[in-house]
Amino acid sequence: MDPLVLLPAALQAFSIQMHLHGSLSEGVASMYSSTVAAEQAGIDVLWWSDHEYGIMHYRIPTTFGFESFAEFDWENEEWEPVAGQQSAMKFLRLRSEEDAHTATYGPPAVQGLGSFRLTSVGKTVFEFLTERHAATARSLVGDTKLALSVLPEKGTAGVSIRLSKHPTDSLYLNYFLDNDAKPSRDGNHYNIPVAFTANEWNHLVLPLSADASAGFPEFIGDDNAIREIHFSVTDGAAHFDAMQVQFNTWYPETFQRQRDILDELELQIPAVVQLQGVEQSVAHHVNVFSINTEVRIPNGIGNLVTAVHANKGLVSLNHPFGPGANADQMNRQEILDRLVENNAYNVDILEVGYRSRGSGELADFFWVWDELAKRGIHLIGTGVADIHHWGPGVNPVNNFVSWIWAESTSKPDMLKGLRSGRVFFGDITLFDGTLDIVSDTGHMGQRVYDPDATITIDGLEPDDQVTIVRDGIPVESFAGSRQVNHTVEGPGCFRVEVYTVDSTAKVFSNPLCLLDPRERKK
Predict the structure, then answer these.
(1) Cα(33)–Cα(41) distance, rounded to whole angstroms?
(2) SS (H, E, C) 181-241
(3) 43 has pLDDT over 80
């Protein structure tokens, strides 16, 4: 939080989702889907934060050798496993069990010692999976193809690709070996015949990005990711071998192509502004907010933060209690101690607006935030959803957004407003008002010498409970929308919390902090 950034008076509070993923990394939804959902929810701005490993195709498993049902995720790849890191697996799993089948491994083979032979009475489907969550980030952005060798004996062999959701239903590319059929569309399924020679290896290269564009022209074709790969045989037998996802577009072209897609979406849905950022995985996940966003190979959080600050950007520390149920189960004191020891890694922003995430509940996030401020580590607080599904608001637990007071929704203005700390956050499904704290010399998100401040909040229900919290301790409460004068007695920080009458989290301010007048420079 920068005490020197002052904003002009003519400002508007713009709602913004600052943490979400789309088809360029691990999002289940397309960028289009989240944009549709954002418009429905009344969100003004999406600041995208796809992962660097999706943008750069960094350490993404793209092959399967079919030597057995499973192999290490680094096998047959162009990258090596990380020293000291436990290897994950990629594997085949039976998806449909209703029809009689046999699945074996052995000769003949295109590569290695064997292939996967599937026989079926009726239709049997096997699914290709990876253990690592990040490994699902196989984007169609640009020009992505799937190479696969198939030796058909009889019946019909096929491979189906489940793509991203548009907006709530996944799209499917269904390839099947057939010399006579024509491509056809059946709802969200595009069926594509592939010419073949029986009883010989057929080395296929399937143009996924191009076929997604051809099959679903109402959508942006490469605004998709490979979510699942299915291999099938109907009433016959076939061998499968030598699968490889072929990326033909690389960083920085992938990042530029995402920017182009976001520009197209702004034209389609002008009510939602599209800003481009990135989430970097450097021991801790961090989001980068800057005018000219650069994506970097992970090289330590300190190096990253230094580089972003040199580029006049901001960095947020994401989900400090861990990303999910399998997160590092540190308690809040341990998390605080780690952050204090490392000066919060010199980041600018802390994601605190989660009802529940990892090992922390909302009260735990606020406790760490308040305790950091007591120790002189003042971070801008934001509320986010970290969306991986079809759009904002679908997660009833974590559907927070932030509101930034700014002159416009342009990237420079939003970044300026964010840097100033004049930000509040909460549940957009419950709150559509504004919240601000100002004094004669500053506003929330800043440190000032003036002890007299005005809290203005509107859009509340009459029985909503508003609490003024001073250094983590509630000091005053009232109900409903109003303007309240508050005097800070002595150095410290105060902020505002609002809950519904049934104690549901609604909206929260950033703190206004009073500096010790004795330390003021003459």
Answers:
(1) 12
(2) CCCEEECCEEEEEECCCCCCCEEEEECHHHHHHHHCCCCCCCCCEECEEEEEEEEEEEEEE
(3) yes
The helix-helix angle for 31-41 and 253-268 (nearest 10°) equals 40
Could you tell me where the DSSP H helices lie in 348-427?
Answer: 362-374, 411-420
> Would you place residue 100 in the very low, low, confident or very high pLDDT band (cuts 50, 70, 90)?
confident
Do residues 487 and 476 lie in contact, with contact meaning Cβ atoms separated by under 8 Å? no
Q: Distance (Å, rounded) from C-alpha 241 to C-alpha 129? A: 16
pLDDT class of 450 with cuts at 50, 70, 90: confident
Residue 522 pLDDT: 44
Distances in whole angstroms, Cα of residue 19 to Cα of each of 311, 388, 455: 20, 9, 28
CA distance 151 to 193: 16
Average pLDDT value for residue range 419-432: 96
Are 35 and 119 contacting, i.e. CB atoms less than 8 angstroms apart?
A: no
**Cα 309 to Cα 327: distance, rounded to the nearest angstrom:** 28
What backbone torsions phi and psi does residue 99 show, to the nearest 5 degrees? -110, 150
Category of 261 on φ-ψ map: left (φ > 0), alpha (ψ -120 to 50) or beta = alpha
Helix (H, G, I), strand (E, B) or coil at 114: coil
Query: 0.70 cut: is pTM over it?
Result: yes
**Helix, strand, coil percentages, rounded to 5, for the chain:** 20, 40, 40
SS3 at position 118: strand
Q: Is the pLDDT of residue 518 over 70?
A: no
**Cα 393 from chain centroid?**
14
Q: Answer for the pair 31, 261: CB distance below 8 angstroms, yes or no.
A: yes
The pLDDT, as a whole number, for residue 4 is 45
Q: CB 237: neighbour CB atoms within 10 A?
A: 17
Check if the beta carbon of residue 150 is closer than 8 Å to that of residue 196. Answer: yes
- Distance from chain centroid for Cα 438: 33
**Closest C-alpha among 290, 322, 323, 319 to residue 307:** 290
- State phi, psi for 9 to the nearest 5 degrees: -75, -35
- 197 to 200, 224, 263, 329: CA distances (angstroms): 6, 31, 44, 55
The pLDDT of residue 3: 45
User: How many other CB atoms sit within 10 Å of the CB of residue 474?
Assistant: 10
**What's the token pair of residue 181?**
């059929």
> Tell me, what amino acid is at 168?
T
Biggest CA–CA distance in the chain, Å, is: 90
Highest mean pLDDT among 94-98, 200-204, 326-330 belongs to: 200-204
